[in-house]
């Protein structure tokens, strides 16, 4: 272990530089979450955007990487701005981009949605608030782009709302919107009436202009609108520039534009139909039939250079894998990206490169038969390059630059092309002094270890595995043995505690845990002999020397917990406004009466990494500090930072330790740093958005002076480094900027040519709808509940999980709704 002298000196090490810290992502790479839509500019080569459901909007760079462009909008107050329900480009101006922002249409998101508009490819934005909510993370978020700019008139923008709010139109370039009263279908489909999440009308699913149609009064005359409606009609058309609308005649009814469900998790049956706009006929071009058709369709990309050439993807084919189909004759014939060989062998007509995110291979692709992904709704062929294509899954973005090789040698090179998309939902962070530089517990993708600071720019080779849980909810280290790490998983059915003795590189299941307890937070005693676990569902539990976890009677469920980092016998806990201390290695806790005067709830406890007696508590009333093992507290930072959330120590200048706290200070609800025990606080967040500060995790580096990590709920881990000076006024920001700011980086290599949108500039447009949702042989009916089996070899039951759970393959024989 590295020896860090304990010093209480307050040092102002560097000349004050009055600039905010610059933040960039820890490079986990590979996305790590769902991408609901990708939109290419029709004529400006290389201009494209990818939207995520909780991690904002990204712009494509010439080197296949992506740059986040909506971070500045995701303030604490407007955290829902990282939910992107639709993105649109302006065919006539490649610098312009529009996005419909807002995360939930229920009461989870307090704000109305906005239409954000940018004239510099997302570097800066203006927003217009809508009179209702937008649901970037609601069901049906991948059905298409429900926001579109008229390709012949940049002032005209349509937005298809959720929640029964109908179609809206702007005639001033997105500054104001008014309801289109002539469009009466509101997209009434509700997955589960009465359900808090699934109980809302999904609304309109896409808007697309026929750029070949006549221009009427300066506007494109023919416009198609899709609706979440499998009863009346799901595709409407106007031929008079939006004055009147009719259901497109002859459309296959009873289905959504795509699938028998609206995605992204469901779909057991579907079809693909081609609508010929010249004579108004529909043709069923579904690429599978009979027992081979056991899935619905999601992504569909058309080649704008070669009319009649397209690629379609299954939305959710959980076993053995997704399938992708390609046609060069408008869907008359199709070929597949893989076929069965000598069963169970498969012939893969593709190579798959994962070096941009090796952990995707280690943790997912190599683990079961699914390679090509799931939840495939975004699939686009570059409108100016028939070889360049991208498709997105529930995990990452795949793509390549040799798509037409499918037609010649029937073999394409797929790569993970999600570099720069960082959408991890971070659950817990740790940076042990003298240990691994960063441990990140995340949702959906287990977690990651970065051994040293120099690794932060390199995607990990592996997620946390053996055991690998879908979601890790917390991680902690033992203060006196920083190579000893403990983490917690969130999947009942097996032990959800794992320990590492090598700094989080290799792991062992802790069999002291039961198989029904899961989730919550964890604290490791200083000498690594005792684990205290505040579980999600089984109260606070304790295990010493591998003994069976047993309830800690003196603590309420969901208590906030922490271990003293130097003294193995001491633990802290809090629930409500009460503070508890244990001096017998968490066997029992005693309430310290009056410890946190005035506080009504405790948010976090941070024990000093080096000073045994020092512990800080973050509460609704701000921070409290104890220097006597929690026996007595004094309020700290009063009048300077209040309503604090997560807090952390981090190595500061010289051998001092800084404090980092999310809370409300002079600059608003943000991240602040103090180098003088809370006497003064500097705003170290600056203009970087971290979303809701209550959802953020923060940890100061235990090893690199001035380095801070912030874990977000959907935008991965950020880090920055600077010098925080003590003294001065509360509002003084004294920080040295050392990193580049990702969100405002513009890519000079982008070329700007121009133009058009969707499939409608071709003679025929291909519209995704579904056929009968009959009982397919290979899939069961109904929806599997949380924790239920949902797949595996020979599985006959449902492969769709009740939202929001995902069917995750555990091995070839077992998949579970997690
Ligand atoms: C519409 O879709 C839902 C979800 O798949 C299904 O339960 C319902 O039966 C469908 N309705 C019709 C008329 O097909
Ligand atoms: C419509 O046009 C397509 C060719 O684009 C043709 O195959 C089809 O037969 C036509 N249908 C009718 C009813 O004319
Ligand atoms: C397609 O190419 C990849 C990469 O070269 C190769 O691994 C794979 O075997 C090829 N597929 C077939 C069916 O030959
Ligand atoms: C550790 O804490 C216990 C309980 O408060 C105390 O009795 C003991 O002296 C402490 N040990 C050290 C080395 O400070």
From TrEMBL:
Cellular component annotations (GO), alphabetically ordered: extracellular region
GO annotation (BP), single: cellulose catabolic process
Record-linked InterPro entries: CBD, CBD_sf, WD40/YVTN_repeat-like_dom_sf, Xyloglucanase_GH74
Signal peptide range: 1-19
Keyword set includes Hydrolase: yes
Family listed: Belongs to the glycosyl hydrolase 74 family.
SUPFAM superfamilies in the record: Cellulose-binding domain, Oligoxyloglucan reducing end-specific cellobiohydrolase
Organism listed in the record: Lasiosphaeris hirsuta
Coiled-coil portions: none
All residue ranges annotated as the CBM1 domain in the record: 782-818
GO molecular function, one term: cellulose binding
Pfam family, one: CBM_1
Highest taxon in the source lineage: Eukaryota
Protein name as catalogued: CBM1 domain-containing protein
Taxonomic placement: Eukaryota, Fungi, Dikarya, Ascomycota, Pezizomycotina
Keywords for this protein: Carbohydrate metabolism, Cellulose degradation, Glycosidase, Hydrolase, Polysaccharide degradation, Signal
